[in-house]
Amino acid sequence: MKWCGDHLQLLDQRKLPVQQQYFLCYQVADVIDAIKLMVVRGAPAIGITAAYGAVLAAKQHDTAELLNTLDSLAQARPTAVNLHWAVKRMKKRVIHHQEGQLDECLLAEANEIFQQEIVANQQMAAYGAELIAQSNAPCNILTHCNTGRLATGGSGTALGVICRAYQQGLISQLFVDETRPWLQGSRLTCWELQQADIPFQLNVDGAAAHLIKTEKVSWVIVGADRITANGDVANKIGTYSLAVLARYHQAKLMVVAPLSTCDLSMASGSDIPLEHREATELCYLAERQLAPDNVAVNNPVFDITPAELVDFIVTERGIVANPTAEKLKNLFEACAV
Ligand code: MRU
After folding, report:
1. Looking at the record's lineage, which domain of life comes first (predicted)?
2. Which residues pair with 312 in a beta bridge?
């Protein structure tokens, strides 16, 4: 995403990997559409986009209307807490604004959020790669969904760790889940890895168990959309299955997420609103119909991995091994977030 003075430019992730087209947001309504329609997706990227959406909203509305519009913006997608976190930060700026032009003040805040996420990505990459280095590296790794530049605006969460580990010679083989139904893995992660010149193999999600067993995968590395106070993790549908598989096969599960993805206001994963998306995501692939007319579809796009299946949460402020409520609380207190 790129701020262009009077509008926000987003690389349209619906069109990748075939076309590189930009979606331009001149109004906050365009930003809400972009988030809902998944022009932009991935928890930190949604948060950054929403922050710039607030800048556009400030150009359009007076303060009362602006605060209502920001509430609508926060509702664009339910699961990734970064959206709510970013909008909350922008609202705070609106409420406490005293001097100067409000939109300029909000732009400074949006730029700061963007910059902080970029720095956080670098720090998480270093921490995560260090964990891999301390294990039986070089090793085989499996990842799910897209957690790179497209999802974060920086080097990535899980994919940032993977890229750093590759540069350090710590990876023998990288497996990429295609990530049904929206195919973030095959369409976006493969595209990013090719650009970074990092070798990998793409597999269907259903092959993960077989690959973890037969290829002796040591690490399953994923991002997160929300981490609750007890360490439960909401992430792309299929993450929970991977966590169970990893534990069964003695692979380690590493969840890489900035503090902006942690929501200590929620006690556990059962409190997280999980997004369900439309049936067409399963029943059609572009124009091609994949299922008979009128099939009943259940399409949850996130799931909850219980903390007890998570070996490490890697944040920009350190690593939490075998997460518990107490350990996460201590981390936040140490950072005074
Ligand atoms: O539905 P999406 O594509 O927005 O879901 C994205 C994910 O689940 C990612 O794994 C998550 O946001 C972490 S990426 C930094």
Report:
1. Bacteria
2. 254, 321
- Burial degree of 216 (CB within 10 A; 0-12, 13-18, 19+): middle
Binding site as annotated, residues: 41-43, 77, 184, 235-236
Residue 207 C-alpha from the chain's centroid? 23
Encoded tokens for 336? 């005074």
Q: Which H or E run includes 203?
A: strand 201-203
Nearest CA to ligand 1 atom 8: 236
3-state class (DSSP) for residue 222? strand
| 157-177 average pLDDT score | 98
What is the distance between the alpha carbons of residues 71 and 184, in angstroms, rounded to a whole number? 28
- Tell me the domain boundaries of the chain: 2-117, 124-335
Question: At what angle are helices 102-134 and 43-60 packed, to 10 degrees?
Answer: 180
The residues carrying an active-site annotation are 225
User: What is the CATH code of the structural domain delimited by 124-335?
Assistant: 3.40.50.10470
Distance between CA atoms of residues 101 and 70, nearest Å: 18
**pLDDT tens-place string over residues 185-220:** 999 999 999 999 999 999 999 999 999 999 999 999
Q: What is the mean pLDDT of residues 135-164?
A: 97
Interval between CA 327 and ligand 1 midpoint (Å): 24
Q: Which residue has the tokens 């399963």?
A: 282
The pTM for the full model equals 0.97
CATH 1.20.120.420 is the classification of domain 2-117: yes
Same fold, 2-117 and 124-335: no
For 92-107, the pLDDT digits (tens) are: 999 999 888 999 999 9
Q: Nearest CA to 70 among 94, 48, 46?
A: 94
DSSP β-bridge partners for residue 253: 220
